[in-house]
Design goal:
The chain has about 300 residues and is of the alpha/beta class. Helix content is about 40%, strand content about 15%.
Length: about 300
C-alpha cells in the first residue's frame, strides 16, 4: 500500500485534526518544546502486525499541519524481522521513535488507533485463513468497513493472508437480493447487467437456492455468491456447478464464524466472505512508552 498516496494522507490528516494534535494542551503545559525523547511501540499481546508504516507517516503528516512546532525529522526504526503480516509475540517491540517529546505524545493516540485496529483485523483474518488451511477455499473481505477507513481495513486483511473483494461499488457488478427483488428474477437481473455493463466488467450474482444457481449459470454469470446456505446446500451447489460446461467461481457468505468455517471450506467452494473481519473487529493491545533522550536504544526482542 502506498502510505504517501493522497487518500491515505487524507485519512491520517483527518485523524490528527480530529484529535487537535497540534493543540495538545497537556504536552504544551508540561513538556519543554525542545525536549527530546524516545518512544517505543510495543505489542502487549500475540498478534499479526498491520500498519507499521503508520508510525512514520503520522509523524510526517503532523509536521505539515498548521501550528505544528517541529524541529528536524523523526527517526523511526524497527527490527528487520518486524514487518506487516509478521506474527508478533507479547512484549515484542514494533518500532522505536526518536524525536521531540511533544510531537511523540501529540501523535501517540492516532498512531496507536490506526495500528491497533489494523493489527486486530490482520490477526482475526489470520485465524480464519489458518482455519481453512489445506482446502482450496480463500477468505474474502467485504465492504463492511469503518467509514473512511476502507483502504486501511482492506490492506490489513491482506496482511492477515486474506483476499480483497470489491473495493467499492464501481469495482465490478454484484447483483444482490434487493436488485433481484426490483427486477423480478435472477435471470432478468443478469440479462440487464450483461446489456448495460461497462465493457467486459465481471458480473457476480447472489443466489439463495439451487434453482437460482441454475438461472445464474445459464444466463452468463462470471461468479456466483451462495448466500446464507447450509454446508450441505453449498456442497450440492458446488457439485451442480462442476457439471456445468464452464468454470464459474463460487463464493459462500452469511454468518460465517470460526466454528462453522471449516465445514464450509470442505464443500469445495472457491471463496468464503466474512464481514466480521472488518465490521466488528477487536483492536490489538499495544502501547507507546516514552523515555527522555534519544540515546542509542536497544530494541526489546523476545526469544
Amino acid at each position: 500500500m502506498d502510505w504517501n498516496s493522497r487518500r491515505i494522507t487524507s485519512i491520517i490528516e483527518r485523524a490528527l485534526l480530529e484529535d487537535r494534535a497540534t493543540r495538545d494542551a497537556t504536552s504544551a503545559a508540561c513538556i519543554d518544546a525542545r525536549q527530546l525523547a524516545t518512544g517505543t511501540v510495543i505489542a502487549k499481546q500475540d498478534c499479526t502486525l498491520a500498519g507499521v508504516d503508520a508510525v512514520t507517516r503520522v509523524l510526517e503528516v503532523y509536521a505539515t499541519l498548521d501550528g505544528a512546532d517541529v524541529l528536524g525529522h523523526p527517526e523511526v526504526t524497527s527490527h528487520p524481522e518486524v514487518f506487516d503480516g509478521v506474527r508478533l509475540r507479547k512484549g515484542q517491540t514494533i518500532a522505536v521513535i526518536r524525536h521531540q517529546a511533544r510531537v511523540i505524545l501529540s501523535c501517540e493516540r492516532v498512531i496507536l488507533n490506526l495500528m491497533q485496529r489494523m493489527s486486530g483485523i490482520a490477526t482475526l483474518t489470520r485465524q480464519y485463513v489458518d482455519a481453512i488451511a489445506g482446502t482450496k477455499a480463500r477468505i474474502l473481505d467485504t465492504r463492511k468497513t469503518a467509514p473512511g477507513l476502507r483502504l486501511l481495513d482492506k490492506f490489513a486483511v491482506r496482511c492477515g493472508g486474506g483476499t480483497n473483494h470489491r473495493l467499492d461499488l464501481s469495482d465490478g457488478i454484484l447483483i444482490k437480493n434487493n436488485h433481484i427483488a426490483l427486477t423480478g428474477t435472477a435471470g432478468e437481473a443478469m440479462r440487464r447487467a450483461i446489456a448495460n455493463r461497462n465493457g467486459s466488467q465481471p458480473i457476480q450474482i447472489e443466489v439463495r437456492s439451487q434453482e437460482e444457481l441454475e438461472d445464474a449459470l445459464t444466463n452468463g454469470a462470471d461468479g456466483i455468491l451462495l448466500d446464507n446456505m447450509t454446508p450441505a446446500e453449498v456442497r450440492r451447489c458446488v457439485e451442480h456447478a462442476h457439471n456445468f460446461d464452464r468454470k464459474v467461481p463460487l463464493e459462500c457468505s452469511g454468518g460465517m464464524n470460526l466454528q462453522t468455517l471449516r465445514e464450509y471450506a470442505e464443500t469445495g467452494v472457491d471463496f468464503i466472505s466474512v464481514g466480521g473481519l472488518t465490521h466488528s473487529v477487536k483492536a490489538v493491545d499495544m502501547s507507546l512508552r516514552v523515555t527522555p533522550g534519544v540515546g542509542q536504544s536497544r530494541q526489546r526482542e523476545t526469544a
